[in-house]
Here is the input.
Amino acid sequence: MNAKGTAKNIIESLPNRVSMDDVIHALYVASKFDRGESEIRAGKGISDELARKRLKRWQK
Here is the structure.
C-alpha cells in the first residue's frame, strides 16, 4: 500500500474525537514501525539477546 492509503487507513482507525496532535502522532508511530520492519527484513536488526545486553548496560 502506498503512503497515502496507509495514512487514510490509520486516520480512519482513530476515534472520531481526536486532536490533530493525536493524528500526527499515530502517523509518526506507524511510519517508525514500518521502517523498523523493513530494516529487520533487510537483516539490519539485532538479536533479542544482544538487545537485552545493551539494555543492561544502560540500566547501570
